[in-house]
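User: Reviewer 2 asked us to show a designed sequence for the structure in our supplementary figure. I'm pasting the structure tokens here. Could you produce the per-position amino acids so we can include them in the response letter?
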């Protein structure tokens, strides 16, 4: 029984952990890295075709975004999550694949003009659709036996619609261990969603530490603060552009703006227009409205019971097509534009930044975490110019941040979650935090709360029965291209290698089959090899 750390080890994005127990091979999350990657993520110790399950904490792409690649590399097991996470991933993974293909096409047009080799997208829409077909959704709080010796349960963690911590009971050679994966722990007293639920006990805990070194400001009056920013921006004749995560943060903003309009807190601009320029955000809002009973908090349910949809209002405009998106920037009326992606790394928000960053009348308002080396982080840190679509843009717009508006618990919230266990876990593994933050938070848990805590690096493996490290992992910076040496296979050739690995997995699964069938299978393989042997 072993646990290995691959992604989000001393980094915030790209969550991926490998658990092997009772003969079952599982991943907990399979996320995409965002921003610049500082450390090499070690490969999991099996090929994708031999994985049995992926247990998914929630739909954000830094936890789910590499599932299509996993499918493209041969994974055909089951992806287990809550029902709302399954519904959200149906749109988020398609959107991610669309972005992968669109950006690759754009880069390839430039490459062709420069006489450079073309690239392949990380994965395709077919890969995304294939991965979506492997999803199985379950309710909160139900114990599910997924294999002999392995049971799991999803518990509401209050970070995103459908988000969960995952409890895993694994029994091997008569020994049972309980491992809890926190996922992203939600911030308390946020709108719409319930507060995080706490877990009673565990032998081992793998927990996030995004804000493990800091406290959120005291919850401001978000409605007042946001109405003030809207008023000042519209009074200047500018646009308020809000880079927002399409799922979660966008719905919170709609919730606040509905109240602002209802209470007439912005004056002199009538029913000022609010554009949601993100097809994914629009679809996600529909999914929010379908999951009210299981996921909404008391305040949001109170509005529902009064016949009020908390996520819509007069003046809300939904932009679906590219043409509708382009028209927003030709309209001279001051407006609010909510668009993805939240860290400004891809999507329509980059077009709105191109049209608004140079305007002193406009405001860019950040409402979520900005990873290191993302465009959003650079703008918050005061960069004076940025490059968008090959053009240098001067930053003259007002750059603001709505402090405390976060889907992540701060240090106090993280400590409350881990200290709510009725029995202390044997070990707490700290992940999903910036490099020094992981160390700081692990040290806090040890020195101030008497917990045995580690911040593992990618590649670290732990024997869960013996309670010891098999391999502690190493701090491995990503090498520069000129020093990288022989690169790992990528693109279409990597898919071909993965297909060969899957073939070996299928061959192993057929051991003990009827001789007649095995002979036919062997002949088919030989015929394929004869066709392609060079």
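Assistant: Here is a per-position design you can include in the supplement:
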């Amino acid at each position: 029984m072993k646990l290995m750390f691959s992604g989000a080890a001393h980094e915030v994005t790209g969550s991926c952990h490998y658990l092997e127990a009772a003969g079952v091979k599982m991943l907990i999350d399979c996320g995409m890295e965002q921003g610049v990657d500082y450390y090499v993520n070690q490969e999991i110790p099996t090929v994708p075709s031999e994985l049995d399950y992926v247990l998914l904490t929630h739909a954000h792409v830094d936890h789910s975004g590499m599932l299509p690649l996993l499918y493209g590399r041969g994974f055909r097991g089951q992806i287990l999550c809550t029902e709302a996470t399954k519904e959200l991933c149906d749109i988020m993974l398609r959107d991610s694949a669309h972005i992968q293909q669109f950006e690759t096409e754009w880069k390839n047009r430039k490459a062709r003009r420069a006489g450079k080799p073309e690239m392949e997208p990380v994965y395709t829409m077919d890969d995304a659709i294939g991965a979506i077909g492997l999803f199985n959704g379950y309710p909160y709080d139900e114990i599910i036996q997924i294999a002999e010796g392995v049971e799991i349960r999803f518990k509401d963690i209050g970070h995103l619609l459908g988000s969960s911590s995952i409890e895993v009971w694994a029994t091997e050679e008569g020994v049972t261990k309980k491992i809890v994966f926190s996922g992203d722990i939600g911030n308390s007293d946020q709108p719409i969603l319930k507060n995080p639920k706490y877990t009673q006990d565990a032998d081992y805990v793998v927990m996030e530490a995004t804000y493990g070194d800091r406290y959120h400001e005291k919850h401001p009056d978000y409605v007042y603060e946001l109405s003030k920013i809207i008023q000042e921006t519209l009074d200047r004749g500018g646009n308020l552009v809000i880079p927002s995560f399409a799922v979660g943060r966008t719905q919170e903003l709609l919730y606040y703006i509905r109240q602002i309009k209802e209470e007439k807190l912005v004056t002199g601009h009538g029913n000022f227009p609010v554009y949601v320029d993100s097809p994914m955000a629009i679809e996600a809002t529909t999914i929010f409205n379908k999951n009210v009973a299981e996921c909404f908090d008391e305040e949001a349910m109170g509005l529902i019971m009064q016949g009020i949809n908390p996520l819509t209002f007069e003046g809300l405009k939904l932009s679906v097509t590219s043409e509708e998106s382009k028209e927003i920037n030709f309209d001279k009326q001051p407006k609010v534009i909510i668009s993805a992606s939240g860290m400004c790394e891809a999507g329509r928000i980059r077009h709105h930044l191109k049209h608004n960053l140079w305007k002193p009348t406009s405001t860019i308002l950040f409402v979520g975490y900005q990873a290191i080396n993302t465009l959003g982080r650079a703008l918050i840190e005061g960069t004076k110019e940025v490059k968008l679509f090959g053009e240098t843009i001067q930053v003259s717009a007002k750059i603001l941040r709505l402090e405390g508006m976060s889907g992540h618990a701060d240090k106090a919230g993280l400590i409350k979650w881990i200290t709510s266990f009725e029995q202390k876990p044997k070990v707490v593994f700290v992940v999903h935090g910036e490099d020094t933050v992981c160390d700081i938070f692990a040290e806090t848990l040890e020195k101030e709360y008497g917990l045995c805590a580690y911040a593992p690096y990618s590649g670290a493996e732990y024997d869960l029965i013996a309670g010891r490290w098999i391999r502690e992992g190493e701090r491995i910076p990503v090498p520069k291209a000129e020093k990288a040496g022989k690169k790992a296979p990528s693109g279409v050739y990597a898919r071909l290698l993965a297909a060969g690995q899957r073939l070996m997995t299928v061959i192993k699964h057929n051991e003990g089959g009827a001789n007649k069938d095995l002979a036919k299978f062997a002949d088919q393989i030989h015929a394929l090899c004869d066709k392609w042997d060079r």
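For the response letter, you might also mention the following. The chain has a mean pLDDT of 90. The longest helix spans residues 83-114.
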